[in-house]
Amino acid sequence: METGEEFGPWLARQLKLAGKTQAELADELKLTRAAVSAWITGRSTPRPTVMTDIARALGTDVGTVHTRTTDTQAGLPVFWYHRPGYRDGGRDLGNAAAFAFDADVQVLARETCQNSLDERRKETGRPVRVRYTLHELTGKFLDDFRDAILWNDLFPHYSAVSETAGNQKVGRVVDAGVRDMYEKGRIVLLRVDDYNASGLTGDDYEDGKFAAVIRRQLESLKSGPGAGGSYGLGKATLWATSALGLVLVNSTLSEAHEGRTERRVIGRLELPWREVDGVPYAGPAWLGRPDPDTPGAEVARSWWADEETVARLHLTRDSDEPGTSFLVVGAQDVASLDERSSQDDEEEGMDGEEEEGAEDTRDIRRMHRRLVEALGRDFWAAMTGGGGRLPLLEASVRTMRNGDVVLEEEQVDPSVEQPSRTRALRAHYEGATVDRLTEAGQVVAQSIPLKLPLSGGAKGGTLGTHQAVLLVTDVVSDGEEKKNGPKNQMHSLRGNRMTVKKAVVPNLPIGTNSFQAVLLVGEAAGESAPFATEAEEFLRAAEPPEHDRWGQTEELALRWSPSAYRRINSLTTEANKAVKELVARPKRGGGGAEGGEALRKALTVKKKPKAKVPTGPVVPELEALDATIGDEGEWRITAEVKIPRGDEIVPMVPVAQMDVRSGGRPKLDWAELVAVEGCEVEDGTLRFPPGTRRAKFRGRTDVTSHPVRAMFTSLVLELRAGKGGDA
User: Fold this and answer.
1) Residues 653, 720 contacting (CB under 8 angstroms)
2) What's the pTM?
3) How far is CA 432 from the centre of its chain?
4) N or C: which end of the chain has fewer CB within 10 A?
């Protein structure tokens, strides 16, 4: 028979849950207090016949006492514990960590999938499996779920937040989420399950993965140097995506806690400060069992739930394989509104009344599609194997309504979502790369040096040179180019093979064939590559909380030096230079000039009639941007502009701004603005000769106009119509 926790600690906790003392148990069993004490301390165990009496005293069955894989049902029930208001009168009007990210399912997919990759159980040799489930509940299904989460206990707190919603941002979001649930009679659940992961191990309060995720902010306890996360902010995307600020958790542990591994359940609610019936509450709340080790058992801790409870909470897992299920209650996708199109409306059959729902941030079909897109875009490399190497990740998305399938489970296929890049990486794994591109579909590989600086603030000097791997392949069909996204782009990634940086390769020769490039750095270049571990540590420190680029960060400046980021700029420069040399090679054709001329004369080419040029002014669009930080701390940019066909081209003004997370973006002045081709610069305005289809310009910002040093922020470049850029 399977047994769990040691008898002594288990019995001590059951007595606390039941509100009994050792002396009271001894009296009920008609034994001495010393006998019970000996069980508690582990000096002895009760006889089988006494086990039956203990079960009766605790109000449970004898099997539970024998196996000790769960708590008894005696004692206080599961409840919501709301953190009391601060004694000094301080107020938190929301969790600041959640403001680091948008309410966007694509951001949630990136952060949660990265966390699952970081917690993959490498010793199994198998991928971590991540599944996203969208589930819309209405009618009785919604009522049953609200009963399961003790909604009646939560409602007074939501009402208190709604009353003050006009005064602060989080309150307005929560109020809108509650109103949507009641007015439309529905709620959207978004569950993220991972398997073959470590699970939320450790104590409820002491250092460990459980406490880092459920109890704390800005703590990251990741496994190994190749981990993607480092700020402890990624988990905040779960609560940011919930319009109700509510996430439920069910974890199967890879390491037993209290003698058990399955169905460790807890809920966490993030609300702003509020006052309910005259009592102030600080903000967060937890759904759990009263902790008998705290005064008055008023604090909620995780509990070992039964199968019926996890089913009612929509947290049932497919197997006993370790990992965690996060349930985002009231999921919303505000960012999806930016991607509406008439084509989407047609695909979903919208007409009349349904068109009014085009503004809906809880459209489960649209959320399904955006999840698949995000996983394919950001994790194609982690899902790619070859040459005997298994993928690190398997990901899928499914969508349901009231238990019925709306969209079948869709396995994300990297060869479909990113065909060219997947082909390049698989060729690298299989040793099928070449030195130069001579035929369609080939993949060329080249080493790119990353000179790692000495840590500890030392100026100059090199710890060693890590050889990154550059892969380049041509785009062999229009379908590939459409799937891969912007052409002539380089994806850079490291250890866990999540795409960190995406950038168009600048200054390409006119007529360059379309291509895609991949830069593998750190452990992604091979765990045996020289200085792979050191490169991981260096680049990880160079990533912001969004993990979407490499550049100057405070950690990089403190642990290495303020100029350490230049090593990364050099890596990018060398990689771009190598790409241009590789793709600039002319295609091999049959025969010389004479053969070409003879072939030309032998062919009759039917010319298409010229398309009618649109009348009226056309507006140029910014197509590509390459930006670096100069030696004096200025931004140096090279930008490419695409111009539609038209008989008049609107002059444009390049406007440089510093990217900030809130408020207006500070505008930067230009120290230099120079035309490269296809345009002229006049008083800061770009002017384009008639018939121009492409143009390029360079610029350098004025450091004196920077409110913050460039190394601590990002650059946004806009093209604005009209002289002076005020239009």
Assistant:
1) yes
2) 0.73
3) 32
4) N
> pLDDT tens for residues 370-395?
999 999 999 999 999 998 889 999 99
DSSP 8-state symbol, 142: H
Q: Residue 727, class by beta-carbon neighbours within 10 Å (0-12 exposed, 13-18 middle, 19+ buried)?
A: exposed
The length of the chain is 727
Spatial separation of the C-alpha atoms in residues 520 and 526, rounded to whole Å: 9
String of DSSP letters for 466-533: EEEEEEEEE--SHHHHHHH-SSSEEEEE-TT--EEEEEEPPSPPTTPPPEEEEEE-GGGG-TTSTTHH
DSSP string, 379-421: HTTTT--BTTBPPSEEEEEEEEETTEEEEEEEE--HHHHSHHH
Query: Residue 74: which H helix or E strand, with range?
Result: none
Confirm if 283 and 169 have CB atoms less than 8 A apart. no
The pLDDT, as a whole number, for residue 186 is: 94
Handedness of CA 522, 524, 530, 533 (dihedral sign): positive
Which residue reads 């100029």 in tokens? Answer: 563
Within 10 A of 638 (CB to CB), how many other CB atoms are there? 17
Place 349 in a pLDDT band, splitting at 50, 70 and 90: very low
The C-alpha angle with vertex 531 and arms to 529 and 535, in degrees rounded to 5, equals 105
Chain position carrying tokens 């790119």: 448
Contact (Cβ atoms closer than 8 angstroms) between residue 502 and residue 519: no
Output the six-digit token pair for 290: 């009263």
- The pair of three-digit structure tokens given for residue 317, joined into one six-digit string: 């897992």
| CA Rg value for the chain | 30
Vertex 659 angle, CA 656 and 662, to 5°: 135
The encoded tokens of residue 384 equal 């790619």
d(CA 117, CA 127): 9
Using one digit for the tens of pLDDT, what is the confidence trace for 619-653?
Answer: 999 888 888 888 788 888 999 999 988 878 999 99
- Segment 99-117 shows an average pLDDT of 80
Q: How far apart are CA 253 and CA 268, in angstroms?
A: 19
pLDDT tens for each residue of 239-269:
888 989 999 999 999 998 877 889 999 999 9
- Based on DSSP, count helices (H) and strands (E) in the chain, helices before strands: 21, 28
Q: How do residues 645-676 score in pLDDT, each as one tens digit? A: 887 899 999 999 987 665 678 899 999 999 98
pLDDT at 88: 73
Report angle CA 277, 280, 283 to the nearest 5 degrees: 120
Q: Distance between CA atoms of 180 and 584, rounded to whole angstroms?
A: 55
**Burial of 38: CB neighbours in 10 Å, binned 0-12, 13-18, 19+:** middle
Phi, psi dihedrals of residue 711, rounded to the nearest 5° = -65, -15
Element (H, E) at 270: strand 264-270
User: Residue 174: which of 61, 104, 270 has the closest Cα?
Assistant: 270
Give me the helices (H) in 512-633, please.
532-541, 554-559, 565-583, 593-602
**Collapsed DSSP state (helix, strand, coil) of residue 716:** strand
Contact yes or no for 671/701 (Cβ under 8 A):
yes
Dihedral angle computed from the Cα positions of residues 528, 530, 531 and 533, in that order, rounded to the nearest 10 degrees: -10
Distance, in Å, from the CA atom of 445 to the CA atom of 519, rounded to the nearest integer, reads 10
If pLDDT is split at 50, 70 and 90, which confidence band does 347 have? very low
Average pLDDT rounded to a whole number, residues 267-296:
85
CA atoms of 251 and 254, how far apart (whole Å): 10
Alpha helix (H) ranges present in 101-208?
105-118, 139-148, 151-163, 169-184
- Residue whose pair of structure tokens reads 């709301």 in the numeric block: 82
- Contact assessment for residue 548 and residue 500, using Cβ atoms and an 8 Å cutoff: yes
